[in-house]
Amino acid sequence: MEKVQLYDTTLRDGMQGENLFFSPEDKVKIAKRLDDAGIHYIEGGWPGSNPGAAHFFELAKKIAFKQAKVAAFGATRRPGISCDKDGNLAALIDSGAPVITIFGKSWDLHVNEIMDNSLEENLKMIRESVAYLLDQGREVMYDAEHFFDGYKANPSYALDTLEAALDGGTRTLVLCDTNGGSLPCEIEEIIRSVMEHFKDRPGICYGIHTHNDCAMAVANAVNAVHVGATLVQGTINGYGERCGNADLTAIIPILAVKMKKDCMSEDNLKKLLNLSRFVSETANMPPVNSRPFVGKSAFAHKGGVHVSAIMKNPKAYEHMDPVKVGNVRRVLVSEQSGKSNIIYKAEELGVDLGDDAVKQRQIVASIKDLEDDGFEFDAAEGSLKLIMEKLTEQYKSYFDLESFRVVVEKDKEKPCYSHAMIKIRVGKTTEITSAEGDGPVSALDNALRKALSAMYPQINDMHLVDFKVRVIDGSDGTDAKVRVLIESRDTDNIFSTIGVSEDIIEASWQALSDSFQYKLSLEHQTPS
Amino acid sequence: MEKVQLYDTTLRDGMQGENLFFSPEDKVKIAKRLDDAGIHYIEGGWPGSNPGAAHFFELAKKIAFKQAKVAAFGATRRPGISCDKDGNLAALIDSGAPVITIFGKSWDLHVNEIMDNSLEENLKMIRESVAYLLDQGREVMYDAEHFFDGYKANPSYALDTLEAALDGGTRTLVLCDTNGGSLPCEIEEIIRSVMEHFKDRPGICYGIHTHNDCAMAVANAVNAVHVGATLVQGTINGYGERCGNADLTAIIPILAVKMKKDCMSEDNLKKLLNLSRFVSETANMPPVNSRPFVGKSAFAHKGGVHVSAIMKNPKAYEHMDPVKVGNVRRVLVSEQSGKSNIIYKAEELGVDLGDDAVKQRQIVASIKDLEDDGFEFDAAEGSLKLIMEKLTEQYKSYFDLESFRVVVEKDKEKPCYSHAMIKIRVGKTTEITSAEGDGPVSALDNALRKALSAMYPQINDMHLVDFKVRVIDGSDGTDAKVRVLIESRDTDNIFSTIGVSEDIIEASWQALSDSFQYKLSLEHQTPS
């Protein structure tokens, strides 16, 4: 099996993504997880560009990584000075990182128009910077920025820049599609030409760095490996500037499982889903359900035909066993679904529907009635579990509502003001609490939380992450039936609940109350 | 320029996506936008599978499309019966759709293991079903389900299934990577083999249908065109089961701009961004900022180096001019982008922004600020018009709010009870009314209607037809900012209004109050 090295740049290029920020401490946590999953290189930042990046390298020195090497990123020296006078190179050395990745300009347009530099001086900058850093005893990689655009514009100059890096002494050339505009066939053809050009210089490791502006970052990276690249740069979840970088959570299983490359062990591959969730959680970005391999929907089946086929042979509608990347098959219960979906789903949720076929049919019928009423359980597995428990008398209620009252007031142009009063019962105890909120549901959420937190302190680590309302039947104006979907999360779980009613507050209450009941039922399962 | 036909299946395969649902009326709205953008085929649903799909085809018959042809989707006849006894084929014919796309099994595993059918009978089903539908005078396309997996398992049988479809009389063979597990190099190689195999049968149109399970749906579709496919199936925003279908909003600009294929006019290409937004709004799915070409971040530049380079020459960090797809470059420097859109829009809505360039820039800036706050005016032209009128001092208020109070009460298992009191002023008259409703917004709607109807009887022919709520920033639970979109209609018009606030009632009030103001402003224009 041919070895492919994985180079993660979530902490550097990934952080260029809009709304993305990691503190140095966040970076340390992520770096440990990347190392634990068997990533070979972890690029921690550009130490010359900001103090936060430099701080991470200070912290990283104290970590005993299992195998990962930490890399610092920076530019070649500035034009017209010697390397030992360049602050950026000094910062790279001071970072103490065992690997230094420097980028240089491959595209004559950048050298001439943007840098106002000469083509010769640019080559000298590349050669001298690489040699200078190698002299410091570091492993040096060369990132050829805009290589593919540069090659398309002026192939011989683009090749000269690589030659300069090789002359400086590095053996790792990373070809970058910085603007993300290249197509797989172009990437393939250009890499082949480069390899042909340097075929007399043995031992070169070709790396690939792609962006997703044409929705092709993964395909371009995989195609590069297909023609001989042996190092892949990317980010977890494809985070990065504009449309993002190449998503390692997709590239890794493709290389390991489909192309049989030696890049990550089977055991580590199973950590991919959690790694993806951990990074999105640390970035405070909602996980993308449709994300290949690691998304919640990546192995979710909706159509009844698909589900019954899957039960006969999963290969029928699944390109890979989800377990390999730590994911699970999910069967969605929807309008179109049949009995087989519901029985399968009950098993998955750990609810025993019993063996009585008549009783089973009644349960299925009850769930289908609720679906006809507008409950969309494929988006609300938390509520589906509670309802299955209710239908099979396995439901335990952790609290009961006595009453609530919500008041919303508005005066002229002043914003609305909402407050809620709630009375609940837990066993023999009655709690009456009152709270304000940004809107009636928020006030109700706060009042319920206040009422329950004395008895169930574990609810404090749960919070609502998404709240969606939709009119089911658009024909009756504000009297129409609405569906409220709530997504909640605690430290370990994400769960969704649903409510349906003509009244938005009633529907919200159902979903809200289910989310608390579901959370409390989860806590109950873990040994205390 | 070689022609490539675009086949949209957002309304059928796209709706298989988790949490995705379109009513027949939603589908009509989307179909009109697809047609307006120059999509060649619009697949509306599987009429045999559910009543909602059939209803769309009823509605579609009444639409005069500019160029798009509507397609109905379904399976080949069942084993062991004749075509005229097959309910599914009958439903396809009854749909009245001018194009029928039927899918058949290419993979022997499906025929044998899942269908428990014979390989021979499967070929007959394909041949006879195609012939039967052609006899009805329809254009018939053949979707070869699981073609690439089937070819990998048993190439000669997979080719036999295509041969059966050709023998049935169709000339359009759509090769499907149903499970989304194929790599670009496999797709390329297999399509070349198929083309070689049928090289003596002239006039075959090859289509491609891909899924994104390996993050390669776009690359696979584009690669197929690269080797000679001339029809591409996909969905807007890549919606679809599991990881989604091939995203047409990426494929189209790649084909048109980068590969110079004749698939969409330059003018229509500029509608892509709005089409993407419209479909995500209708689906009530948050638009993905990092989506290639049409995402909010697709041409957003964060780094200062990038920004100054971009100002010297946009090509430096941009693979394409964003204007071509209706998008805009976003940089930290203040920008005039979108100004022309807004001026154009004002003209369309009949608001005179005046000739003063300074004033115009202020108006554009104010609207852009509101957009940054979460107002999405593309889906709320009613509110956009009112805001433009306010900014140009042309706004006439038909009523003013003094105050309102809404109370929601719930007792144990009884449903919620809502009532509202409202005090409004029209000129010198003050009205205080009170009303109940199914929920707080409904109560408020009823109370406002009651207060206004004495003075403005014309509001009685207006009613609310859709009400959508979405959390804009999913990270803050019930405290997060929500956007409420209301669609209203009277006898002649449909108009949409918007409100944004941390408080759902406040946001609802903004949208509700705008809908009444807008309605009254309309009435004012018509001679009475």
Task: List the topology elements.
The structure is a homodimer of 528-residue chains.
Chain A: E1 5-8, H1 24-36, E2 41-45, H2 51-61, E3 69-75, H3 87-94, E4 99-105, H4 108-114, H5 119-135, E5 139-145, H6 147-153, H7 155-168, E6 172-177, H8 184-197, E7 205-210, H9 217-226, E8 231-234, H10 248-258, H11 266-269, H12 272-283, E9 300-301, H13 304-312, E10 330-331, H14 339-349, H15 357-372, H16 381-391, E11 400-411, E12 417-426, E13 429-437, H17 440-453, E14 463-471, E15 482-489, E16 494-501, H18 504-525
Parallel strand pairs in A: 1-2, 1-8, 2-3, 3-4, 4-5, 5-6, 6-7, 7-8, 9-10
Antiparallel strand pairs in A: 11-12, 12-13, 14-15, 15-16
Domain Pyruvate carboxyltransferase (chains A, B): 4-273
Family (chains A, B): Belongs to the alpha-IPM synthase/homocitrate synthase family.
GO molecular function (chains A, B): (R)-citramalate synthase activity; 2-isopropylmalate synthase activity
Short summary of the structure?
The structure is a homodimer of 528-residue chains. Chain A has 528 residues and is an alpha/beta fold.
